[in-house]
Amino acid sequence: MTAKTWNRTGSKVSGKKETAASGRTDHSSEEKQNKIHRPMVRNILVLGKTGTGKTSLLNYLYGFDLPTGAGLPKTGKGLHEHEITRNGVAYHVFDTWGVEADSLPEWRKEVLALVRKRNTSPHINDWFHAVYYCFSANTARIEEVEIEEIIVPLLQSGCKVIIVLTNAEDGFHKQEKMDGMQEYLCDELKKRLHYDPQLEIIRTVSVAGETLAGDAISRFGRGEALEAAQYNLTEDIKKRLPAIYKMNVRNKLDAWKERSQLLLANGKISFVLNNNSAKQLIDLINYDLLNTFGAIDADGDKLEAEANEYLLAEGSKKPLDKRWRPEFSRITYVKGYEYSKGLSVGLAIDVATSLLRSAKSIRENLSRRVVKTHAAILESMQKTR
Ligand SMILES: Nc1nc2c(ncn2[C@@H]2O[C@H](COP(=O)(O)OP(=O)(O)OP(=O)(O)O)[C@@H](O)[C@H]2O)c(=O)[nH]1
Ligand SMILES: [Mg+2]
């Protein structure tokens, strides 16, 4: 689907993006190349009951021309994904429509599962980069199920939600209504979560028009909404990256331990010069461990580059703090037998001692050392952020 080009006139936020784009000259050419090769992905989720102005909001914020209003077929209600490429950005828009309050419990599972799956991915381009929940200031209705079934579980799963009060143009008792909605929401959320989630609550008018008296209604709220989304994504990146990194270290070290144990169970140990065989096995295991650290660093670099790409696009002037990676001790040597390196005296000792050692005891001893090294590295990381 192709969308209209966004008319930048009067847009605060597009101005910011330009600043961000020019700021990119400070960063490596590698980053620039990455950008050229693949379009940046933006996953956007918009939730709320039918008619609250979700699709209109998407059109307003991102310059799409998705169909809005009545007259849409009433089949296929629920969550729909649209892919729209615009200005080199691939938008994956998850819009819900035709959802009434009584069907909320039904599709909440689908929404929550999708959010959890995406937001725990090790790739930032799988995450939701903006999540909006719309309430219309016209009706000023906030159902308990909306809070209970959707907003609270989303917040509890670590997903930041931007609350949008749509139809915020002047109207009869509009300001009081919106103040009341805001207060009610804050109180209910605090009560259920037992902390203040400090949600962004943004008032918007997504469609320009006229009042009954013939006064012009202008759109507003775009800058604030996009700014809130930028802020949330920046926070998510800072918070989730260390956890993703730690998980990867754990997985990589577990795999190393498993490979090492397989090698120790099956590797050749000669009957006489078994010290020498043990040394060869240890060398292989140590070499594999060094490679494992190399792979962890390479994955960390990739993650950092992806994060910086998003941060810069979000208008952040600073790339990620270089100290974001949780530290762990890089034990690069699994100590083994006191094998001798020389040939003359050493060889004699080897022959003598090897008679006392069985291959089985060597395998068991080395395996214990691998387990110990594995535990020591992970334990050292446990203590960091
Ligand atoms: N005046 C005014 N009208 C709006 C605003 N936002 C949406 N509308 C109108 O409200 C109607 C419903 O908007 P939609 O964007 O289709 O609502 P929706 O939430 O996507 O509805 P479903 O897809 O059925 O769930 C449309 O006629 C829009 O033009 C707003 O901020 N102000
Ligand atoms: Mg819609």
Protein model, in words:
- The protein folds into two domains: about 180 residues, 3-Layer(aba) Sandwich (Rossmann fold), CATH 3.40.50; about 140 residues, no CATH class.
- The chain is about 50% helix and about 10% strand.
- A six-stranded mixed β-sheet has the order 2-3-1-4-5-6. The chain has a two-stranded antiparallel sheet with strand order 7-8.
- Strand 2 and strand 3 form a beta hairpin.
- Helix 4 runs parallel beside helix 5, helix 7 packs antiparallel against helix 10 and helix 8 runs parallel beside helix 10.
- The longest helix has about 45 residues.
- The protein is elongated.
- The two termini are about 45 Å apart.
- Magnesium ion binds next to helix 3 and strand 3.
